[in-house]
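Sequence dictates fold. Below is an illustrative record:

_____
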Amino acid sequence: MFVGSLELDLLLGDVHSLKEKRSVVRPVVAELRRKFEVSAAEAGHLDLHRRALIGVAVVAADASHVRDLLASCERLVAGRPEVELLSAKHRLLGPEDE
């Protein structure tokens, strides 16, 4: 079994309140879940209006499948015009990791 995680640090565009932030971040998280069937949530920068940290997690039997899914998730978010992807951190745990 392989477990992959992805942290996406985002800068939001013209956002002036936490309510506006939610209206930008929620559709991104929902699309990740729907399109790739991954676990995704806003996981950081909760009190900052123009920043968001989205966490994504994947479990699969094949490491390459986990890597491909996480790369697809990163591309989807990077392609959204309303956000700027500042950084992406990928992690992979496999049967030999403890």
In short: The chain has a mean pLDDT of 94. The chain has two helices and four strands. Helices lie at 18-36, 63-78. The two ends are 12 Å apart (CA to CA).
